[in-house]
Structures are given as structure tokens and as C-alpha cells.
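Re: your question from the hallway

Yes, I did run it. Sequences:
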Amino acid sequence: MNEPLPAIPRSAADDHAPAAVARRRELCELVAGRALPHLAGRPVQGEEARGKIENLVGFAQVPLGIAGPLRVDTHRGPREVFVPMATTEGAMVASYSRGMKLLRAAGGARARVVREGLSQHPVLVYRDAAAAERARASVPALRGELERLTAEASAHGRLVAVEPELVGRRLVLRLVFTTGDAIGINMAARAADLGSALVAERTGAVQRYVHGEDVEKRANARALHEGRGRSVVCDVVVPRAALVEHLRVTPEELQDIQRTYQLGFARLGTHNGLVQSANGLAAVFLACGQDVAYVTECATGFLELTPRPDGDLYASAHLPSLLVGTVGGGTGQGTAAECLELLGVRGAGGANLFAELLAATVLAGDLSLLASFCTHEFVAAHERLGRNRPPEVR
Amino acid sequence: MNEPLPAIPRSAADDHAPAAVARRRELCELVAGRALPHLAGRPVQGEEARGKIENLVGFAQVPLGIAGPLRVDTHRGPREVFVPMATTEGAMVASYSRGMKLLRAAGGARARVVREGLSQHPVLVYRDAAAAERARASVPALRGELERLTAEASAHGRLVAVEPELVGRRLVLRLVFTTGDAIGINMAARAADLGSALVAERTGAVQRYVHGEDVEKRANARALHEGRGRSVVCDVVVPRAALVEHLRVTPEELQDIQRTYQLGFARLGTHNGLVQSANGLAAVFLACGQDVAYVTECATGFLELTPRPDGDLYASAHLPSLLVGTVGGGTGQGTAAECLELLGVRGAGGANLFAELLAATVLAGDLSLLASFCTHEFVAAHERLGRNRPPEVR
Amino acid sequence: MNEPLPAIPRSAADDHAPAAVARRRELCELVAGRALPHLAGRPVQGEEARGKIENLVGFAQVPLGIAGPLRVDTHRGPREVFVPMATTEGAMVASYSRGMKLLRAAGGARARVVREGLSQHPVLVYRDAAAAERARASVPALRGELERLTAEASAHGRLVAVEPELVGRRLVLRLVFTTGDAIGINMAARAADLGSALVAERTGAVQRYVHGEDVEKRANARALHEGRGRSVVCDVVVPRAALVEHLRVTPEELQDIQRTYQLGFARLGTHNGLVQSANGLAAVFLACGQDVAYVTECATGFLELTPRPDGDLYASAHLPSLLVGTVGGGTGQGTAAECLELLGVRGAGGANLFAELLAATVLAGDLSLLASFCTHEFVAAHERLGRNRPPEVR
Amino acid sequence: MNEPLPAIPRSAADDHAPAAVARRRELCELVAGRALPHLAGRPVQGEEARGKIENLVGFAQVPLGIAGPLRVDTHRGPREVFVPMATTEGAMVASYSRGMKLLRAAGGARARVVREGLSQHPVLVYRDAAAAERARASVPALRGELERLTAEASAHGRLVAVEPELVGRRLVLRLVFTTGDAIGINMAARAADLGSALVAERTGAVQRYVHGEDVEKRANARALHEGRGRSVVCDVVVPRAALVEHLRVTPEELQDIQRTYQLGFARLGTHNGLVQSANGLAAVFLACGQDVAYVTECATGFLELTPRPDGDLYASAHLPSLLVGTVGGGTGQGTAAECLELLGVRGAGGANLFAELLAATVLAGDLSLLASFCTHEFVAAHERLGRNRPPEVR
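Structure:
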């Protein structure tokens, strides 16, 4: 593991004053092993945005804080990091930071990417179902050509699955790619376009749509079991005493609130069984130059909170669809590059590690927030109503 | 209407060079009627982030461009605006801008907020179903007290509906608030806490969870018909000739792709029947100091694309759950405030107008992107495969 | 309460032999207070099917058994009944019967209809969104006329809610009716047709579809919180000892399996959070002359299984959408009428009681089946694999 | 093809009188090539229900009519059949019969089973995610043993896919079987029990649930793309003139109503994009000894209605999850056996043919019903309201 990190310095007097901010930034520079000038205010040059935006007029500036330290056992070994989060929602960074302290008190969480694969679903439409069936039958023989086209479309992408699905007179050509450390959506789209065009030509499709079953940037049921991008699991056993000390709740109280939450989620028909995953992901995405529109698709998954027979808490967050990259997109740019360096995930080889840190961040935030809902702490002043009433049935 | 806006100036030589960027920014300053120094690079001061973030270390910088001009008939009359979008996804601003030009060629779209109301769903748990039924029966009589508590919790919020829903031994206390020009989530949470505590005390609830059926920041089925925040509809009739000229497609081709898309959406079980709403909303949210985590919840809704008997296209976007504000949150801050001024929606009275401009932005982007999928333009180089084949059956 | 019922007589030698069957049927006749000739084999006359079917060629015959006794506290007081179930799925009636014995050992379950209302959703389409908004605004003033039209369409139906919902250029005219002891779908359709035609005429709709948002006979998210037909809750506290004795599981084991089941349901995106509700409802529907196609819509809802601090089990089944009737439809006919008499719910005033008995039946079956999944009893012979392994973490 | 069938004889005077019923039954006997005594009223003996039900007291009797003739091109060649339907919903058989006449006027529909496979999803729970990952890694090597256990569990079943899916600390062991002409659920459950016990033992699972992700008898999102049982597509090109003559609608009118329906389905979050599939499937299931509880799962899928450039209508129904059998379950019994004979699908080799006839039945019913919604025929008397208004925009 990298060396243990100190607690984040805070100024009781005025924590947003220049000195307090500078003190934290200096610590970040120490951790990152480099200067972080853009975070400090040096404007990014317009030329750096080339290829990333049109009609440029300047740069949006969003407040950025750090949470942590977050300790996680990753596929690259144990890591301890400060997590950069950009947001204007007061109390959010503090909430995540509190959860991260809990995870550290538990000895750290464990996180792993358990599946990789960026899917695209071109759709080919045929004259009728008979034609679509014939087309489906011809797909397996085209596998080699599809792989070759993918290789032509990208140096980093690889086609790892081709699954034709018939729906009436349509053929959904499910293609799955690995994309290295990039999200890889442009590469995958290019390969899907070439591949679907090939199949369409060979099979006489009357219409072809590269993104026909358009899973991109929308929460959906399919990805809950297939996953998309990187699927990550983070889990931890939290000692009972640590939970009570840091979050002021018991495992049983978390189980109770979870029971009500899961009923609510079922009634809502949501694909997001986590609690505040959207908050944490959006804040880190924004800090780290990710495409924040993907939060729609990434902030889905499952949370488990189970008291163990020994009185401790087993907790896990499962995020099936993390679409993140540490190369390409907005990652090379000013503050994004600085934040990726701070996390230690910038560049080639960093994407899975980044995904694992994100899953741990989500778990930390969900534990912290659910606990605060149990204790009604965010509304302390009004607690006198409806409280001090022993729960008879949990 | 405000005066017609000129086309966005572009530099064929190098559109990201300082001069080109400055020229556009000057136009923006003219439109906004004020200087836009932070967009130009002047750092925002840390003190301005007070109450919006903890453990501040600096500010994230994200490239920001403009799309437009967008012409919309709003509840405040016709408007013509440049739409600020912060993103690192190349081609996206151009895609939106193209769609906006189409809407202008059609004489402008029309957008209206058709419903307002921020819902919260505290859950009270009882010993058994009999107790929950009794509690439900007592809620109507508490309406006055709940309204009074809301008034105490906020000067701007108003409780407009109280609907108790029984689920087994649980009472979901659906509360709906209007919140003026703020998103109002903190106000609503405070009122929901006070209100649910009151009901819990009077009815002997054994557990109480302020966000028990937690609709916040997750796409969900419930909001598709109830809406949340502001529900907005934007529609337009696009003359056939304008569609062909600007997007190179016919109404019938858009209908065709829409048929395949809707099948895909049904198979995906998604709540987002729009195409790239997440992109447009995330980019404008980021520019305008909105909470981007809400994109999960906001980027849902429905798109209609119907050829009319006269050969023109009827198009509409329905966004049931726009959670946006023009006061509070991140809106008062450096670049956010500047962008809200650019749109002409900053401050009191601006939220519904902002929502209407967002809906028009979404419609513009969806028309543009779907058209490019039809024409396979984003992969023009590889078009030779699978094309030149007359569609026999649409 | 009616008098306690004896255990169902069984013949160890051959329980399907004529004598064993006759003995049970005689008991049923005693309970029903009348002869049950059609159950015994007397053919129903074709004339009795008039108005219920076209192109009649005869009658399907389906084996029918009884489960119970089932003891339920209903809105009409405690009831003890044998539940008629028609099925060809071996072991199913036994499974329900086992669950009912458990409920009786617990002193009986409690069931109540907690909401009534049959919704219809005609859709009116307008030229554009502006026209649809104007139409929506005019609906409240038409309320009186809509009520009058409902009264004309039916002597038993009453219009209890009119809620116009705007979706783009469409107006979903949500109408809710009470329908007495019939399902009332024909009445509601007639009233919805008259009502939607009236609104269409007054507001200049360009299209009108009586079942436009067609909730009929399909599981759906909307009904999970709105309910349709009759919403029923059944709950019970099962003493720990009774649970162990009858089902050989502990409350904690049921909580464990439930945790896994709920994760599965979330992954499946199903609206049915019960376990085998489709089995029980289909079997009783078939026996009692209900429209079995409604099982699609009725077999949705929620199951709670929570260990109490005192070691007992709290269990509940919530069925939001029971569409059942005790008059009209197939209820007047041969075996259906006999079975409704056996349950004591035939005719006017019986529908809510019938719904309550059904909810208790569902709860009994789910407890029984989940327990058998815990104990792996249905595959006892192969238990040696993967067992005898103390669960370390629940 | 078998010989063309005559129109179903009807009696204008009294179509439910014994003579009219007998005349149709005699025609059925001619078609079936055997007597149909149980349909005619001869009671089934209790002994025949052995293994299919417990606590037998008799037999439910449900009116049974025929629809047709239905002409379908199947994988066994063209077929023309009368479809037996048991129901008490007046007008339903007539509605299906009308749709079948349309299909015949179009030269017959085409139907094919496009995928077979009964999935089961046992779930194994581990101490933590690390253990679950290790277990997942060991599954491929166990494939041979799992196949052997399946062979032991059943002579007819075959294990065709084993796909371990990780969710937190759980392993969903997706198993897919082919099951011959039976539904095969008992066989699959046995094999899944044996297989999951083997994996659990080898990998140290702390909990094991044979039906852990319980897809059985519930509409769900997963099956929409994976299918379950038999996936069937039925399509047809209906000449414009035939459509207008038989259903009094144009292809464009069907496209219009479909547009509104699909919006409604999206808002409902339903997995059933067909119109009255539940009706047709329930009625044929009941007639043919199928488990009607499966209608919940079977009545899902997609309907396409697209006007062709030549003015005709392309129509298709896609049913991804038909769980039907022609051997086992209730199929050997009195009226069920008679109805399967009438359809010509009884016994070995019949299941796929049966599935294809069902899909054609569903398509016929949906065309007929949607058309009647367009023409407002079921409420003809009240048509004067809201009509005679030329649709300006479709």
C-alpha cells in the first residue's frame, strides 16, 4: 500500500478561507506528487479543449473538495486516497468523508472489477421474420470478419462477444467490446457501424440503426444483469462498535431502514437500489473529467446491509455499469488530469482501479446517508416529535 | 420577444484559438448585458463556495460552449437565446446547435411547464396493518397542521397535496410542495421531517423514515405519470422542406427509426424514452450551477415524431421531472450566475422559463441526433457497406 | 364467526378414489348448506353459457380440490373456510393447505380491503400540446356531466375520480369507478366511452381511444401505488414455535431467503414481489368463475417477512390490484356458483370478503412455499449435497 | 396442409341451444378424428386427476367454444385449425374468430419457434464477494458434472447453458434446459437442485436457494430479451382491402392507435406490449390443460403494426416466453386431451407446433381488438359524440 494518509486538515475558524483551502491543496500536491495549479485557479487554455467541445466561450468553474482518506483493497493492492468531488450541494462531501472514515475504521473495504465489456446493440430490420431468421443464422460465420473490422476501427478495442437476438423481423446484433482504459464509446460505435453494415449487406437488411436498441446513458433493466462498461463489487465487514461509534446506528437499525427502502424501490420500479450513488458518482465524474451524462446509466445497482450472527455488519455495493476511463475524453485536461493524479489512476492501467475506488466511494456514502436517516440527524432540531418511542416491532 | 440573435461566430482557421473564443464571449456579454469574467478565466473565490461544499481545495474547470440561437415560445413570450453547455464530449454542442437551427427554421418551438410540485415520500411503519389503517384515517384531519409546519419550515414552500398510501403495515405519506424558483429539496425535506414526525407521534408509528420511498435522484416509474419538480412539454411542427434541408431526413425516416427505438426502449425497460436528453441536461446543468446528480431523475420522458398528413413533421418532447432552480444551490456562483444571466433566467421568476428552455434544448438535440443516425453521417467514411439498398418495407 | 371447520378428510389408501372424493364433497355440501351437483359431475347446460361465450362446443373440466381450513379475520368478522382450487399442478393444493394450517395455528390472519376503484384511462389526442392543455383545463367543469353519464351507463357503477394527465399533445383521462360486487369492467368501459366522447367533442380532440393507456390484464408499475379493483392487505403474527412446528423454519431463515428473493426481484424488474401468488389466484379464480386472464394483473404486490424482537414472525401480503366479482361474469354458472357458495361469498355484498379470503390464501401459500425452499424439502433425496454446513454469515 | 376447414356453423335463432352446440361439436369430432365425449359432458373420473391435485372434490366446468378457422404456416407446414377457448368473457371468442378470418383472408400467417430453453436461476450466497468470485471461477470446470446430473434427473431434459452471474456476494447460477415437449419445470427444478447443491458443496456456499432469482410465473424484464420456454414470432402481410373489409380500418389507423398504445405501455412500465394476449392465452391454456398461472409470464411481448409503402399492413406478434407442453402436466386428461387432439398437437412432437398456433391466435386477437377500438364498434350506440371530426394530425 501507499503510505497512510493523514486526516484532512480543517480550520475551525473559517474553513473556506484562503489559508485553509491552501493547506488542503498543499496536502493534495504532496499526495499527487505534483503541483495542481489549475485546481488553484490557473485558467485552462482554450486550445486544450480542442476536440472536446464546439463554440467554446470559456470554462465553467465548480467548487471541488476532498473526502477521505478512503482505504480500499483493490486488484492492485491496498490503496489509501483522498477522493476529489466537485459539487455545490452542501454537506455532501462531509457525508462521504464520514462514510470513508467508517470504512477505514473497519480496516478498509475491498473492491474488484468483476466484469468488463462495453455493449452496443445495432438493429437490422428485415422484410419479414423469415428473412430475419435467415440473417440470424448467418451471423456466426461472420464472426471473424467482425473481429477484423473491430481491429481496423481501433487499436485498443477488441470484440469479445457477438450475440444476435431476434425480435419479430428485427435482429438485435449484440456486440461486446473491451476498450482498455478508455470508456471507448466512439471506438465501439465505429466498430458497431462497420460490423452492422457488413451483416446488413450480406443479409439484405432493409433498415439499419447503429444504436438501434439504445442503451447509452439511460438506466435500464437489461444492464442490471448483463452489466455495461465495468461491473464492480465493493464489500466490507464493519465491526459493530465502529458502526455505533462513527454512525451512531446498529446493524439492525440499518437492516430496518433497508427493509423499508427496498419496498420503496420495488414500488418505484427503479433500477437504482443504492441510496445516493448519483451524488458521489456525479461529483467524482465532474472532478475527474468523466462524462457526467453517464451518471444516468452508472448510478444503478444494489446495496446489501446484513447483520452477521457475530453482531457485525456485512455491507456491499454492486455497481454493474460503471462507464469510466482514465485516458481519452476529458481526462487529459487541466483540473481533470490533476484529480486523476491525486487519485493515482491517471493514464493507461488506471481504469479498473478508478472503478474500484468509485465503488468504495459509493458504499461509503450510502452507509453514511442511511445512518443519518436512521438517526434523524439532519433535522436534529425537530427531533422531539415522534421520537423516544421504543420500537415494538422492527 | 428579445431581439433576434445573430449566428454564432466561428473561425474556420482555428475555432479554439483565443481570438475565436473571445469573439464569441463578447457576443455573450452583449446578450447577457454584463461582463462574464469568470467564464473568461478569472478564478472564483473560495469564500463563494461557503455552504456549498466541505474540504474545499479549489475549482474544477470544464470547457463551456454555446449552442443556438434557440427560439422558443415560452409562458413569458417568445425568446431567442444562446444555450451554454459544459462538456468534454466532442460534437455534442454542434449536434444541439444543429437541432436548434432546425427549430428556428420551423419558426421556433413552443414549451410550457404543465405541472409543478416537488414530492417527498416519508414512510411510517406501524405494528401491523390495522394500526397503519387507523393512522391513514387520521391524516386528513392533520392537513392544517401539516400546512402550518411547512410554512414554519420555509418562506417559499407551500404544501399542495397530502396523500397517504397504505402498503402492508406502512404508510407512505406522499407530500407535494411548490417551491418557488428553487429546486427546494432542503425545504421540502425539512417540512417532510416535521410533518412525518407529527403524524408519527399522533398515530404511534414504530419507525419513521423521512425519505422512506426514496424517489430522489433515481429514474423511476412513479414519476412518469406523477411528475416531480417541473413537468414540461415542448413541441413543434417542422416543415418537410426545412427538415430535409437541415437534417437531410424525411418525417417518414424519423418515424421509421423511432419505431425501432421504441421497441428497444420497451425491451430495455427504461424510463427514458428520449434519445440524448442526458447529454443536453448534464451540459446545461453543469454550466448553470444545477446539481448534475439530478440528471438521473430529469433525463426521463417521451419523444413523439409523427408525420402529418400534410407532409410536415410533428415533434414533441415531454419531460415530466425537471428539477431545476434559478435561486439557491449553486446558482449564485461565478460561472453559474453568468450562464443563467446569458439565458436570461437568473433569480426569482426564472425557474419555469429555464425549464422551458431546457425542454426545447432536449427536443433540438434529439431531432438532430436521430437524424444523424438515419443518415449514418457520423460514420460517413464507411457508408459503402450495407447501403444503396432501397427499403422495401418501412 | 361461523363454526370451526374440521380437518379435511383424507384417505391414506387412495385419496383419489370415488369414496374419498365423495366424503370431502359431502363435507363441502354441509359447509355450503346446499348440494354441489356440478362439482360432482352433472354437466352444465349450454344455455347457461349464453352471453359468456360464442361458438360453444362444450365445457372444459378441470380437477378441483380444497385447501384449508383457512381462518381469517375479515371486515365481516372472523371466517373459517375451505378454499376451492382448480389446478393440475400436483402438490400445489397441499402446499396452500399447509400454509393455511399455519395461519390457523397462529390464531388466524387478518385481511382487509384497503382501497376500491376500477380505473380506466381513455386517451384523447390533440393537434398539439397547446390544444391538449386547453382541453385539460376544461375537464373539471365537465365533472358533473361525466357523473351523469356514468349513472346512465350503469345502475351499480359510480364515478369517484376524474384526473386529467397531460403527456405531450395527449390527455390521459384517468377515471376511477366503484363497481359494487362486480368486477365492472364492461360498465366502466361503457362509462369511459361516453365520458371520453363527451370530452373529445367539447375540446376538439382529433383522436380518441377508450382504452388508450391500456392497463387491462397486464402487470404494470402504475397500479403498484394506485391499485386497481380492490387493494387488500393480509397480515399475521406467527408464533416462533408454530412456525418451526408446521414449516420447519425459523423467522430468521425466512428473512434470509427473502433477502435473496428481493434482490432477485429487483434484478428481474418484476411487479410481483410475492412468491406463488399466480398459482393460488389462478386456481381459485378458475374454481370460482373469475376471468383467469386477470391473474396477470392481480398477481402483483409485496410480501413482508420480518422477525420480531420477541422471536415471532410478522408476515404480510399486499395485493394492490385484485379484480374479482361475486356477481356477473362467470359467477352465476354451475361449478363457479357452487364454489362461491362454499366460500360463503356468492352474490351481492360478497366481493370484498372474497378479496380478503384471496389475500389470506396468497399469504398462506407464500409462507408454505418459501419455507419448503429453505428446507429443500421438495428435493429431499438429494439433500446430501451442499448441506450440513453451518451458515457463517446470514 | 391438412384440408381446408369450413366456416364454423352458427344458428341465428339460438346459438347456445343443444342442437347448435352439437352441430359444432360434431364438426370438431370430424376434425379431431375421434369422439370428444368429455367436452360433451361425460364426467372425468377422479382417478385421472391423480398426481395433479390433492383433496380432490370434483371438477370445475368452464364453457368452451371454438375460434377459426385459423390458417398458419408452421415449421411442420401449413395448418388450418379450430382453436378451442374456454372462457366466460362474452364476445372474446368472436373477437378472436374475426381476427382469424382476417389472417385467412391474408393467405395465412407464418409462425415459428425461434428459441427454446427453460431457465432456472439458483442462487448461492457466500461469506463475502471474494468467496463468490472464487466460486464463479470454478463453475466452468463443473460443466460436465452438471450435465451428468441433469441426465440423471430426467430422460428428456438437457442442460444447454451454464452462466454464472455475480451480484455482490451472491452467485446466480443461470441454467438453461431443453425439455422436449413438456414444459419441464419439475425436471428443471430437480436438475437445478442437484446442480446447485454440487456447486455449493464444492465452493463452500453458506446459503443455497434453488429458485433464488425466481423468474417463475411473473412478468419480468429479463425474459424480454432472454426468452423462457419457447420464443415464438408470428407475422403476416395483410392486404389493405382485406383489412378494410374484415376489420373496417386502414393500416394507418392501426398505426395511429399503436402510437398511443406504445406511449401508454411506456408510461405503465409493463412487460406486455401486446393488447389482449392474456385473454387468448388463458382461454386456450384452460381448454388444453396448461397451467393457467403461467399466463402471467407468457402474456408478455411485442406487437408490430406497420403500413407498407404498397399500402398493405405488416403485422407481427413476438412472444418471448411461452411455457407450454403437449405431454405431462394436465395434458393427458379428459377435455384437455380432447382439445389438444382437436388442434392436432397432442403428445410428443407437438409442443413447438402448439406454440406456433398460440402465437397466431394472439396476433389474430390483437388485430381484431385494436381495430374495434379504432372504430368504436363496441360502443356503437354512442358514437355520435366526439366523432365526425376529420383528424388533422395523425
